[in-house]
Design goal:
The structure is a homodimer of 167-residue chains.
Chain A: H1 9-19, H2 26-44, H3 52-59, H4 68-75, H5 79-91, E1 95-100, E2 103-111, H6 113-134, H7 139-155
Helix pairs in contact in A: 2-6, 3-6, 4-5
Chain lengths: 167, 167
Amino acid sequence: MTKPPKGRVGRANSLVDSYENLAARPGFLIRRLHQIHVALFLEECRQFNVTPVQYSILTTLRDGEPDQTSIANKVGMDLATTTHVLKRLEDRRWLTRTPNPSDRRQRIVRLTGLGARMLTEVDVCAKRAHERTVDQLGGKDRERFIASLAQLVEANNQYSRAPIKLS
Amino acid sequence: MTKPPKGRVGRANSLVDSYENLAARPGFLIRRLHQIHVALFLEECRQFNVTPVQYSILTTLRDGEPDQTSIANKVGMDLATTTHVLKRLEDRRWLTRTPNPSDRRQRIVRLTGLGARMLTEVDVCAKRAHERTVDQLGGKDRERFIASLAQLVEANNQYSRAPIKLS
């Protein structure tokens, strides 16, 4: 299907060959890499018992006090799932959800002092997980890979079930 | 973080900038691209009501009659989830699961005639979904992207919760 990068020709080829079509499929590889990232994240951040999605959501609270819909739009998740995650983080006292006086259907979400302190610590282990996910690629290949990921995610944003909407 | 590929500089930059850190994180981008691929797959294959994971599993049956554990190992999923998916496909009469005479704890899985015919048709829409997932990248970037994906998936295989095991 494709030329593996230098230095890994043998191994990459052997995986592709032994799978025939399966490992050549972008969607299959993306699912696997997502699984791998989640596992690395849970391992690196196990002392905080926090998931990648919880972390994504928490970081949207850093620079403001968004409502739940804005958070869902920012992280590309549906509102029901986002609300469920927020409730769990509220139970742990990492954030508060208070009714928006100007729109009763909305809740404003704020990091608590505890949440802000935890988030600063989680940043460190999360960064390690993100790095480990791609650190088998050399510097230039890694940059190119992340740029391609960003390009595909942006170009196909509207096709996902919960597109990202930036206000 | 990284130079976006030519021709998309403006758009790629604007997404990264407006997200600050979030869109620069490999894990976040991988989750989004996985969501996008699933949505494209469900759209392309909606007439068959089949998911990417069901398709991955079905294609492992093409060249043999594996047991359920071998299938789980091939697609990188845990046995419980794999068995659940297989039962649903059995309900639809796309495959059979029969006890293995030489190991009562195992079941041998076989495509039915109906399943084989459906799979040939699903191949076509699945291919379109896989292509659409990466077709915003130019030919060379696309090859390089898929090679990098394969490299990362292989190198980090052991970190995932359900590593791929090739017999």
